[in-house]
Amino acid sequence: MTDADTALVLARAQFAFTVSFHFIFPSFSIGLASYLAVLEGLWLKTGRSEYLDLFRYWVKIFAVAFAMGVVSGIVMSYQFGTNWSVFSDKAGPVVGPLMAYEVLTAFFLEAGFLGVMLFGTAKVGKGLHFGATLMVAVGTFISAFWILSVNSWMQTPQGFTTNADGQFVPAGSWLPIIFNPSFPYRLVHTVIAAYLTTALAVGGVGAWHLLKGRATPQVRRMFSMAMWMAALVAPVQLLVGDQHGLNTLEHQPAKVMAMEGHYEDHPDGAPLVLFGIPDDEAATVHAAIEIPKLSSLILRHDPNAPLKGLKSLPKADRPPARIIFWSFRIMVGLGLLMIALGMWSLVARLAGRLYDWRWMHRLALALGPAGFVAVIAGWVTTEVGRQPWVIYGQLRTADAVSPIAAPGVGGSLIAFVLIYFSVFGAGSWYILRLMAAPPEPGEPDPRATPRMAAPQAAQRGEG
């Protein structure tokens, strides 16, 4: 490769690394903010103390995850100016205002009420505190709205024209840009994924404590709520994902060809390739295990419907199937395991053994991090599947990079890897430490200092 090619690869690797780290925390905090609002609302409605104990337990974890998400997002955004200045120049008139709306409408809302939610328990009334918690939950959703609108416009651009400088500018109304063809599907799919990520994390923590013999009312309650979420929402996600896939087939057929491992055209119905080894150079899937015509049935709802393959596209326009093929299967496979866990929990609930079936608890514990893996796999599928375009069909990734030298990008990438793993590794370790202790009656709220919390811990027999 030339120095320019190496710089491009390193710039893409740096952005992929930082976004992957960043995406982990919002995918957790979006769902956790809503979970906190539900817990506080149930406490206000029922007066049951275990809801307040769970709120105080999880709000501390939310604060750490939210902080790490903010910090990682700030670092990530600088790369638009350093490594992707051509993209920033050309797409700035569209992307810039949408990102600014996210700050003005979401980040300020979250920042304004986060302090009240975390430290205002004894300083404001119950209603105002609940309102602050709701505003933080709404803010996380609004943030997802704008970020996914920007990403979806890059996937399915519309409502724009180009000016004399070659920049993308709105053609008139902003509504076609914001509500582009893939945005509704991507928004619903991603937000549900965030809720499932949180449910599995909460369920995994509950399962851990149940396996340790800590079947307190608080542990039982959070495990039950998490299993309800998995049982009811995971099957819905399967249907939403199917509709999102059909939308992708319409607007980004090359991505679906790579996901399915279809290199050849299939005029009489395409098989579903379950597993195999994609080979982009040879344009084939080695050792493929296939189910005849099932891909056409899923994608076209007709087993004999024709489907195109990657060979129908110029080689320069094909995404790397060897990556997308497996990231898609990781996402779907984990989704099916989530559905299986939800169904198993329903059977256990009907049998009155939800807190007794240890093998189900072991599965719930094993799937605790599955939501994080699934959202990263889905992001890889979405973003790598868009290649070789950064704005689909309009601006190639190779033409969007800054005129930078490979050593500079490589040095900053190494620095990012070292700093991210140390800083965010420490933060994640602290979150795991918080999760390792079970929620207790009289759980202290975040405003309590260690000295203030000590007498409460002693009363619970912890000190």
From TrEMBL:
InterPro entries given in the database record: Cyt-d_ubiquinol_oxidase_su_1 (IPR002585)
Pfam families (alphabetical): Cyt_bd_oxida_I
Membrane topology reported for the UniProt record: Multi-pass membrane protein
Region span, Disordered: 441-463
Keyword Iron part of the UniProt annotation: yes
Claim: Electron transport is one of the keywords in the record: yes
Sorted UniProt keywords: Cell membrane, Electron transport, Heme, Iron, Membrane, Metal-binding, Transmembrane, Transmembrane helix, Transport
Listed transmembrane segments: 15-36, 57-78, 98-120, 127-148, 192-211, 223-240, 323-347, 359-380, 413-432
Compartments, record wording: Cell inner membrane; Cell membrane
Top-level division of the source organism's lineage: Bacteria
Protein family membership: Belongs to the cytochrome ubiquinol oxidase subunit 1 family.
PANTHER family, A to Z: CYTOCHROME BD MENAQUINOL OXIDASE SUBUNIT I-RELATED (PTHR30365:SF14), CYTOCHROME D UBIQUINOL OXIDASE (PTHR30365)
Name the UniProt record assigns to this protein: Cytochrome ubiquinol oxidase subunit I
Species in which this protein is naturally found: Sphingomonas quercus
